[in-house]
């Protein structure tokens, strides 16, 4: 690839970097490295979170790529950190020229600070007491009715809401024979699971 071709590649890579950074802002920094110029490798930084400057030298990873064309093309989701200690999830993609030499790299650095805070908050919010009492917020037997309906539909290779009228009649007969129609608010549970009105369920049960 000619020098002009490599310059065009960097220009296009910079456009991609800008689009990615705008999509994942404000959490993701996207950096374009010009590996042909390791002393001033950083060509651009979009959504700068690390505090680095354009023209800064290549990192150890960049230098490793320059040294060996066999260096992995993609290093995804590896642990990293910014200078101030913030945890980072990084991904680095190497770009080769026609001769198989690394000439550029696209690096994504995601600030994990907020996400880890959210993770801890969610873990605390969803934590349940080990000695909590048991309480059922649905009519007794409703789960058995829904399970029977699901099994019935599965035997016909369909879903409860896709059952045809004749199939619903057969279903109601099965539920009656199994005693599940005697469950409190059974008709309401069946109607909700089938996606039909209670009047329709009563009609199917009578036929």
Automatic annotation (TrEMBL):
Domain Transcriptional regulator DauR-like HTH: start-end pairs: 145-205
Chain ranges of the YheO-like domain: 10-119
Domain of life according to the entry: Bacteria
InterPro entries noted in UniProt: DauR-like, DauR-like_HTH, YheO
Pfam families cross-referenced by the UniProt entry: HTH_22, PAS_6
Transmembrane segments: none
Protein name: Putative transcriptional regulator YheO
Gene source species: Samsonia erythrinae
Phylogenetic placement of the source organism: Bacteria, Pseudomonadati, Pseudomonadota, Gammaproteobacteria, Enterobacterales
